[in-house]
Specification:
homodimer; about 200 residues; five-stranded parallel β-sheet
């Protein structure tokens, strides 16, 4: 039997740069699987079913909630988003490590449903820098930036339940940190013991 | 307050190459401290007090045992060896990570005395390869090699209590594995949380 993969959950305050870090990590580690979310919003031009999102109807989304098919989900006024459990579990069962990028609330749910998931929290080097990055995106109003900053402070205050904390100051350092976490987790005795023993003839 | 360092304990069956792996690791990471053992044997030419060993009298060694000054020790007919706790704890208190290379029995003692130590077990890629390496050294009799092989099989059977298992097939891979473990352990939330929170102004 091949060993089961590890589920890595990455969360961060908005603006920290988690998507960039994970994109870079996946580029270097094609063996890592990326968990695709389901959403009720319509596909944008160029977005592919099963690659960018699983596009589902609001009815199907509700059904998935009822049937407990999500590892976590969130419903907003504009659209709903969720992580279907089946593709993640199938990949893990086949021995593939998976990366899931989600909000802190969703991460807590994953932790409850899959206690062996490894939770990584990415933080900015400072709140000043986070504000600078948020303003640099130029996509948010002053009010939205203030709301994001307030949320960031709350999230950082609550990051105690995570397994690892990575500071995203220099991108390459943060990517190397997450790489080291993935590599080290694969060496954990509770994961590798039987495989190593079995291979040691 | 600076954060406390982490104590990494490396064990391996004789012939696996743990000294080479750790030497390479220390060469790349001068910030890591290496724990120096105390011994009752006489210094060999070139060996320096406090660098290679702390050279102590049998009386002093017995006194250190009585005063509980060792993290672990082992007494052989030829000489005794032990890890004095004070230099290790002082280094850890100053925030320095420390590496301790010791036998499995000693590692168990360290685990009991310092439950937050991180135990790394290094294994050969196969028992055939271990035997080949032992013979390659050309320093042991056939009887000694057989005894070492028997001990290696027992040790591998008992490695379950370790935190990480690293296979020393290619040296550079094994060193990178231990590097990843050290790096990841520094990112553990239970170690870094307060420092990160304190730094996030």
């Amino acid at each position: 039997m091949s060993r089961r993969g590890t589920l890595f959950v990455v969360s961060a305050p908005s603006g920290t740069g988690k998507d960039t870090v994970v994109r870079e990590l996946l580029a270097r580690h094609p063996e890592l699987g990326f968990s695709v979310s389901a959403t009720t919003r319509k596909p944008r031009p160029g977005e592919q079913e099963g690659v960018d999102y699983y596009f589902v109807s609001p009815e199907r989304f509700s059904e998935m909630i009822e049937k407990n098919e999500f590892l976590e989900y969130a419903e907003y006024t504009s659209a709903s988003y969720g992580t279907p459990a089946a593709p993640v579990d199938e990949a893990l069962d086949s021995g593939r490590d998976m990366i899931l990028v989600i909000e802190m609330t969703g991460a807590r749910w994953v932790q409850v449903k899959r206690p062996d998931a490894v939770l990584i929290f990415l933080v900015p080097p400072s709140f000043e820098e986070l504000e600078r990055r948020l303003r640099g995106r130029g996509t948010e109003t002053e009010e939205q930036i203030e709301a994001r900053m307030k949320k960031a402070r709350t999230e950082v205050a609550q990051m105690g339940g995570y397994d690892y904390i990575v500071i995203n100051d220099e991108l390459s350092d943060a990517v190397a940190d997450v790489e080291a976490i993935v590599r080290a987790e694969r060496l954990k005795a509770n994961k590798s013991l039987e495989t190593v023993k079995g291979g040691l003839k």
